Amino acid sequence: MTLAVSPLLPRELFDFPPDALWLSHCKDGPVPRASAQRLVELLATELHPWALRWNEDFLDIQASLRRAGAALFGVNAHDISLTTCTTTGLEAISLGYPWEQGDEVLIPVGEFPSNRLPWLALAHRGVRCIEVPLWAGQAKGAAVPPTASIDPEQTLLDAITPRTRVVAVSWVRYQDGVRLDLARLGRGCRERGVHLVVDGIQGAGTMMPSFDGVSAFATGGHKGLLGLQGQGLLWTDATFRQQLVPVGTWLSAPDDFSQTGTQYGGDELWATDGRRLEPGSPSILSCAVLASSIQMLIDHGGAPAIQAHVTGLQEALLARLAASEVWAAEAHRLSGLMRAHRVGPTLSFVLPPDRADRLLKAAEAEGIGTSLREGYLRMAFHGWHSGQDVERCAGWLLST
User: Residue 169: beta bridge partners?
Assistant: First the structure.
């Protein structure tokens, strides 16, 4: 019997082959057809630069992406910066913060390099990056997988010392799929006078983040936001932003760059809004694609609707697996995490390597796109998935 849940995002919005089941937007999200068409239209400005309209085809496209990102996240467009990816957003923070010798940054054990290397690179400035295990036995390779009993927010707050200036976390972790409570962690950091900086890429587009107590939130656009590689967004708290050394260049002046040759002549060199942190010329093609994709998400209910849809599909899959002796333990573990609101859009199953390898090979043969990271087999749901997709996913898992 097929689960009667229709896609929130109709499949015809994408260019999926008829038999494709893509469960890997945690790796790469599909660009919608309309966004791809927008790219084709704008390519004419590259072929015919004499036809480019400065405001409509350049400045306005950047502004439209800031507005779209702000609308999706429920924040002010004034606080949005355009970046090339998650890493460049985090680097704007790590390189721009007024560090002093002996300052500390806390990050969880097992962070993706985007949220690890920018902080480790500060060692030459006398800044220590301390990696904090989020639960007992946490290690690479899923040595001890997370359960509903973990309390990563309190663990990080307890690790703060008088020298801690920044706590930098992934909102949704890329391998085990654990989702942190940003509101709780943000309040705790704020009470302790510490800045919370967030890598949001694994949840952006499918989950609704809290910015309460958060100083910065960086994300690339090519996963759940359904944009191109090489385009991202950075949100910063206005007060925090003014503490950072601006990295912005010719497009970051208080007034928009003028084609007349007469530029801003005031005392302030940089804008106070998010443009202050934008490092040079953006790809207008990438900006337009991401703006179009985000607007599509908004038009179909936005992050809250997609989150509710994804959660329902995850619960249905785990219910199917719970009846299997082979899968019952993992279904129970993940169901507990879901009840504790600890799961993002990705269900991450811990499996023996040989079994995971068999499942990956079977998935490829059946046209199912999934991925393995540090011992976790990942299945990521989004708005285009349906109850029929859940049944197909369950059939693959139960038959291999």
Answer: 198
What 3-state DSSP class applies to 159?
A: helix
Q: Please state the pTM of the whole predicted model.
A: 0.95
3-state secondary structure of 8: coil
Which tokens belong to 70? 């702000």
* Domain assignments of the chain as residue spans, ordered by start: 11-30+302-399, 54-299
Q: CATH 3.40.630.30: does it fit domain 11-30+302-399?
A: no
Q: How far apart are CA 310 and CA 99, in angstroms?
A: 40
pLDDT tens, residue order, the chain (400 aa): 567 789 999 999 999 999 999 999 999 999 999 999 999 999 988 889 888 888 888 899 999 999 999 999 999 999 999 999 999 999 999 999 999 999 999 999 999 999 999 999 999 999 999 999 999 988 766 678 999 999 999 999 999 999 999 999 999 999 999 999 999 999 999 999 999 999 999 999 999 999 999 999 999 999 999 999 999 999 999 999 999 999 878 888 777 766 655 566 667 788 899 999 998 889 999 999 999 999 999 999 999 999 999 999 999 999 999 999 999 999 999 999 999 999 999 999 999 999 999 999 999 999 999 999 999 999 999 999 999 999 999 999 999 8
DSSP string, 181-226: -HHHHHHHHHHTT-EEEEE-TTTBTTB----TTEEEEEEESSSTT-
CATH number for the region 54-299 comes to 3.40.640.10
CB 176 within 8 A of CB 343: no
Q: Would you state the structure tokens that stand for residue 298, as one six-digit string?
A: 């908004």
Q: Which residues contact 373 (CB under 8 A, 6 or more apart)?
A: 174, 175, 348
CA distance 110 to 150: 15
CA distances from 187 to 93, 109, 144, 181, 210 (A): 20, 22, 28, 10, 11
Q: By C-alpha distance, which of 105, 234, 80 is closest to 163?
A: 105
**Residue in 199, 211, 219, 269 with CA at minimum distance from that of residue 237:** 211
Q: Which residue in 307, 103, 113 sits closest to 205, CA to CA?
A: 307
